[in-house]
Design brief:
343 residues; mainly alpha; two-stranded antiparallel ribbon; 11 helices; 78% helix; globular
Length: 343
């Protein structure tokens, strides 16, 4: 049609061709606008899914660890962290099996079990330390401390994967470190039931262990499965299985299984489900929109978690702590902005 229009120079044919071309252009423009709208709607939906799931995860985590349960009024801090991790892993295993069945993938391990063991152990230790820290420090302190994970990731990446980082990475790490230090030094950071400096120091040491194991997990995860065709769901299934076996034996031996309380077990189920479902939204977000938008969503989620915890569980923050919090999240947003600008 285009060739015919170019050859035929008669005025009425030219006008007809121009009209047809204009309609085609507007039709294509409308289709593109609809695609952009649908993509934006999907991105907002995934971001809201991550917000709802992970903010709920933080809420139930703090609710369980600060409440009293059962007829004997068992304190949340007496509940075994290993038991909570076991419940999380069993739920994630169920989600993984369901996904594998839907995708008609294999349930057999796609790599030697030894490859899963290191990740399962470090992931289990990181999650256990995350729960244990709430016995000694407040939830805002724990959440802000978790934003410093990029520092051990950079250290492990340098030594294990021989990665080289740019100046902006070190500047962002310095900003996060400075903001976290300011937060710790300018106001209360201990849990409400734990006010002395000794327990605060223990909490800081546990958070340092969390960062150590969490940084190790992501680095080894990338290294071990880089050359193996291991699906996310297969990895989720076998990492969860190995973690559940270890934490199950640990919670039984330590007497950490809490007495039956319908509300408590309902909250534990909600905690586990919110963490497992969040993984689905996270995977879809990274797959369809990339790591940059995901990093922005996660940074926003952490800030909202701190804000809501301060409101719901009445954690007063000093002016210096708010400055430290803004410095931490400002550094993280700056890193994302620089990466977007370069693209």
């Amino acid at each position: 049609l285009v060739k015919a229009c170019d050859k035929d120079k008669r005025p009425h044919i030219a006008a007809l061709c121009e009209k047809i071309g204009s309609r085609s252009y507007h039709r294509g423009s409308k289709a593109q606008s609809k695609m952009d709208y649908d993509r934006t709607l999907k991105g907002v939906g995934l971001a809201m899914g991550i917000f709802v799931c992970l903010i709920s995860y933080g809420y139930f985590q703090e609710l369980i660890m600060t409440g009293t349960w059962g007829n004997d009024k068992l304190g949340g801090t007496q509940i075994s962290s290993l038991f909570l991790v076991m419940c999380n892993r069993i739920t994630s295993m169920g989600i993984a099996v369901l996904a594998i069945m839907i995708k008609r993938d294999t349930l057999m391990p796609a790599a030697p079990l030894t490859a899963y063991c290191a990740i399962a152990f470090s992931n289990m230790m990181a999650t256990t330390c995350q729960y244990e820290a709430l016995r000694y420090v407040s939830f805002p302190t724990q959440t802000l401390g978790k934003t410093a994970k990029m520092i051990p990731v950079m250290i492990w990446g340098t030594f294990l994967a021989r990665k080289k980082y740019k100046l902006k990475d070190y500047l962002v790490a310095a900003g996060v470190t400075t903001g976290t230090t300011l937060f710790l030094l300018t106001g209360p950071v201990s849990a409400k039931h734990s006010k002395d400096s000794k327990t605060t120091l223990i909490g800081a040491m546990i958070m340092a262990m969390y960062l150590f194991f969490d940084g190790f997990t992501s680095t080894v995860q990338e290294r071990l499965f880089k050359d193996r065709k291991v699906s996310t769901w297969n990895q989720m299934l076998y990492v969860g299985l190995l973690s559940a076996l270890v934490t199950g034996m640990g919670s039984q031996g330590g007497g950490g299984v809490p007495p039956y309380d319908a509300n408590l077990y309902m909250h534990i189920f909600a905690l586990s489900m919110s963490a497992a479902v969040a993984q689905i939204f996270i995977l879809l977000m990274i797959r369809d929109f990339g790591a940059l938008l995901f990093a922005t969503v996660m940074t926003t989620r952490q800030f909202l978690s701190i804000l809501l915890s301060c409101i719901i569980f009445l954690h007063p923050l000093s002016g210096g702590q708010w400055v430290g919090t803004c410095l931490v999240f400002g550094s993280l947003y700056m890193k994302t902005a620089i990466n977007v600008w370069k693209k």
